[in-house]
Amino acid sequence: MLDNSRLRFAAILCAGAILMVGSGCGASVKPSWESFDGAANVKSFPIPKEANKTEQTKGNSGLDYVRYSLPGLKESESLPEAYIKEIESWGWKEKKEERKGSSLVFEKGKNIVHLTVHDDYLIITVPAPLKKEAIKGLESKK
Length: 142
Description:
Blueprint: H1 2-25, E1 36-38, E2 46-48, E3 52-56, E4 64-69, H2 81-89, E5 93-94, E6 103-108, E7 111-118, E8 121-126, H3 132-140
Antiparallel strand pairs: 1-2, 3-4, 4-8, 5-6, 6-7, 7-8
């Protein structure tokens, strides 16, 4: 009987230690904003190296986006100035008139990128180009 209670105590102690270590590993760490790679869908747009691609559209979808997990990122906070400066150093300019909350729009030549910030992740979206037929249709209605 004494051996069972010791075994039970050891099991509870072990489980508690595992929970404590496991919860420490899941703690959110803020990104460093010091090193960058090109986004999966727009190689010329910087993404923090700590970001992990979690989702990307495939095929001929009209929607081209990549979702990156980035623990510590907060939708309610503005992006760090270091990241904005990095984006600009890669040749992108923010279209400030198109900013809506945590959604920013950047332009480089004829390329447009939408950067949307959420809690612990961000999304890089490239809008589908307008079809020439749609533009012709709009022009013919004038």
